[in-house]
Amino acid sequence: MLSFIPGAFPGTAVFFGASFAFWPTVIALVVGACLGWASGILGERIQKAVDGRATPPPEAADPVTPAA
Known about the structure:
63% of the residues lie in helices and 0% in strands.
């Protein structure tokens, strides 16, 4: 849902920094979108590598029973 954000930040910065020029803004939006896509793919791969460790997740503790 928020995949547009990596392209929106550099696009906005370039838009105002380049005196409202159209083509530098378009280029920044495309580059930002590509970097956002690459960041998402790399993040998934890193998460899979972290989750794939040999140590199992900790066991759930027994729930506390209330006194009767």
